Amino acid sequence: MANPKSAYSIPTKKGKLDTHIFVVWVDNESGVLARVVGLFSGRGYNIESLAVAEVDATKNISRITIVTTGTPQVIDQIKLQLKKLVPVHKVADFKREDKKVIFKEMALLKVVGNKKKIEKTLKACKSFNPVILDKTKQSVVIQITALRREIDKMSKKLKPFGLTSTSRTGAIAMTRGAEVFK
Amino acid sequence: MSKLYTGAEIVFKCLEDQDVEFIFGYPGGAVLPIYDELKNHSSIKHILVRHEQGAGHAAEGYARSSGKPGIVLVTSGPGATNVVTALTDAYMDSIPLVCISGQVPTHLIGTDAFQECDTTGITRPCTKHNWLVKDIKDLSKILHEAFRVATTGRPGPVLVDIPKDIQFAKTNYFKPKNERKINGKIHNKFSQDEINDLIGLISNAKKPVIYSGGGVINSGPKASEALREFVRLTGFPITSTLQGLGAFPGDDNQFIGMLGMHGTYEANNAMHDCDLLINIGARFDDRITGKIDEFSPKSKKVHIDIDPSSINKIIKVDLAIVGDVNEVLKSAIKKINKKQNGSKISNKQKISKWWEQIQKWRTKNSLGYINSNESIKPQYAVQRLYELTKSKDTFITTEVGQHQMWAAQHYKFNKPNRWMTSGGLGTMGYGLPAAVGVQIAHPDKLVIDIAGEASVLMTMQEMSTAVQYNLPIKIFVLNNQYMGMVRQWQELLHEKNYSESYSEALPDFVKLAEAYGCKGIKADNPEDLDIKIKEMIDHNGPVIFDCQVDPNENCFPMIPSGKPHNQMILGPNDKKENKISGKGKALV
Questions:
Q1: Nearest to B478 by CA among B418, B402, B374
Q2: Could you give the 3-state DSSP secondary structure of residue B4?
Q3: How far is CA B417 from CA B65, B217, B435, B523, in A?
Q4: Measuring CA to CA, how many Å separate B199 from each of A27, B245, B483?
């Protein structure tokens, strides 16, 4: 600001940003996703990825998984603000580094190229449980499940082999062992 | 088989079961079935406003002064968009409103039909929750839930959008269920340990200050009583936010005035130097805290609030107690009484030095101003208004700007729910319609809107409402021909570049009053002020009082934003003392 004299306030130093994964259980009703997403955009929070689907058809419960970054104070606010929304039942959040939680993303990759390139592609994907969903002479559609950064890496790697389209889900998460999110 | 009711009938059955007496509204195509049904429900009176924003603010004034939710009824499209400002205002200041809006028939939704808009989409960020009723079977349940959401926990506005075909459709009616838990959204389970910690902090404090807010008002009149007892027991100084005024008597010696941007010298310095800060039902708004990094740097901080998301949102606190103010205070009082009876531990002695310091700050008389014999000083006008109305149980509303701050500084409130002002959103045009709502709730009380001439013109049309229902509201306009607060900022912070803050043309307010069919009074001389104010009070009907004040007066003290509490700008009075010579002349 050129002349900050009548500024509301001068922003203070920003703290360290952490990446957190929020898991939110909501009533599956119209507008509920808009409420959650609107909360994020309205309050200036960031959404890295978002995955949502109904998980309990009898109780009409959807599970939303949101990956976001923020200072510890902001993360705390996100959680408390989410809990205030009427259709929200519960909210769990954990750091991306949390060892007790598994979190995965799925991607569909389409590679168009000759036999050699397709073979190379399949080899490169090996460690990510590749499933071949469709194959022709000039193309292959592979499904892989991996971490976000691994998929980032794969898309880069497969570019020279003829990767033409990528479709990714947002991250979804689950606790290890017998424990469940509270 | 029970009787089937139309959607419109169900709306009124719900309102009756929720003990609604008044609706503030404006008809239109998409709510015609509901308006058609109005005649069959004599216990509910409809107040016809002149603009939907006015309906919203009137409902806010009604809610704030009565403690009951305010009900708004508007049509689709422009009806709904016009009420958005009032909904946002209510959301920011935690006022319970239930807004019912008409919508185009369900089969037309999404077709850009006449007077269609995405009402629930538009109002989603400015309501606690909203509903679009797509099935008549859900209507009674949704309406009852709407009341519950609006009035429980931290109160706020809700909106129910009802398509026209749903208003015609028929189904059974369901009465509200008692005590259904709503998704665990109400938090009132503080622990005794937290209360013990609070008592511990209280008994160790040497320089404590209590900072109370609108949460005390929202918690009900009992919370104000509890606050008074708590303050007396502890002997601590208490300051209040703009919204909290009236929870503690403004003329009490323990009250050190409002804090924040235009708060008193003693309140802000106490906030800065204290070693214990007890926030009761306030939210550390930026107009209160000033510079966050230097906010009350030496204190332990306690925050009592019903909304968990208020805790640590802006200021990190040492002890958070999430709960209803009244219950937390009652619990604390009980504990203090027990303790004092047992061991006679009181730290009233310990804090006597602190009180001495506060007295020193008080001698600054930071609300002082230089009075004049020639022109009416706005502060003087508010003071005279206070002196002449304090014996009555007066209700004050305001618009937004300098006049609002002068009212907050110079009008002393002794009871809760007597002060209605737009704090969070800062909505110019709030006060006049709010006064309409207050007068509806309290037909025999004196209701005054302390207004600015720029603000009041934004919703002036509601004078017509006041005249229609013979509501004797008094619009006390501090007319300085400027958007005063804008002009003040431009003077102090933008090198006196008064860009667009002067109103070149203003109506003759006396003639305007007459045009509306009410009384107009004009005062431009300090000598006549008292007589004219009395004339206003004595007139049995609405009045517009054009009080022509010194246009160059600024509102002091002031913390420039981005500055901490101990760097206030004081008024000209103080500057004179410092720069020129001895005592200021006979100042009020």
A1: B402
A2: coil
A3: 5, 7, 13, 29
A4: 41, 25, 46
Which residue of A lies nearest to B146 if distances are taken between CA atoms? A86
**What pLDDT, on a 0 to 100 scale, did the predictor assign at position B151?**
95
pLDDT confidence of B580, banded at 50, 70, 90? very low
ipTM, interface predicted TM-score of the complex: 0.90
DSSP B344: -
pLDDT digits (tens, 9 = 90+) for A134-171: 999 999 999 999 998 899 999 999 999 999 999 999 99
Average pLDDT over residues B570-580: 61
pLDDT digits (tens, 9 = 90+) for B430-441: 999 999 999 999
Q: How many residues comprise chain B? A: 588
Three-state SS string across B208-230, please?
Answer: EEEEECHHHHHCCHHHHHHHHHH
Residues B223 and B419: beta-carbon distance below 8 Å: no
Residue B579: pLDDT band by 50, 70, 90 thresholds? very low
Listed in sequence order, the residues at least 6 apart from B84 whose beta carbon sits closer than 8 Å to its beta carbon are B122, B123, B126
Mean pLDDT of the region B373-388 = 97
CA dist B141 and B353 (Å) reads 58
B149 contacts A8? CB cut-off 8 A: no
Q: How confident is the model at residue A181 (pLDDT cuts 50, 70, 90)?
A: confident
In sequence order, what E strands does B418-506 have? 419-420, 447-452, 474-479
| Chain A, nearest residue to B132 by Cα | A30
Model-level pTM?
Answer: 0.94
End-to-end CA distance of chain B: 73
The sign of the dihedral angle between the CA atoms of B217, B222, B223, B228 is positive
Q: What are phi and psi of B291, to 5 degrees?
A: -70, 120
Here the tokens at position A10 are: 């001068």
Confirm or reject contact between B552 and chain A (CB < 8 A): no
Neighbouring CB atoms inside 10 A of B381's CB total 27
Q: Does B292 touch chain A (CB under 8 A)?
A: yes
**C-alpha span between B553 and B540 (Å, rounded):** 32
B284–chain A nearest CA distance, Å: 14
- Which pLDDT score is estimated for B586? 33
- Judging by DSSP bridges, how do beta strands B255-258 and B276-280 pair with one another? unpaired
Cα separation of B166 and B135, whole Å?
A: 7
pLDDT at A92 over 50: yes
Q: pLDDT tier at A1 (50, 70, 90 boundaries)?
A: very low
- Confidence band (pLDDT; 50, 70, 90) for A180? confident
* Catalytic residue status for B359: no
Task: Round to the nearest angstrom and report the end-to-end CA distance of chain A.
Answer: 44
Report the interhelical angle of A115-125 vs A148-158 (nearest 10°): 160
**Nearest residue to B468 via CA among B535, B536, B541, B396:** B541
* Residues from chain B contacting residue A38 (CB–CB below 8 Å): 124-125
Query: Where residue B290 falls among pLDDT bands split at 50, 70, 90?
Result: confident
Q: Tokens 């800065």 identify what position?
A: B272
Residue B121 to residues A172, B194, B280, B426, Cα–Cα distance (Å): 27, 40, 34, 23
Query: Is the pLDDT assigned to residue B184 strictly greater than 80?
Result: no
Quick check: B200 contacting A, CB < 8 Å?
no
Q: Is the Cβ–Cβ distance between A50 and A64 less than 8 Å?
A: yes
Q: Which residues of B touch A5 (CB under 8 A)?
A: 493-494, 560
Ranges assigned E (strand) in B89-152 = 97-103, 129-132
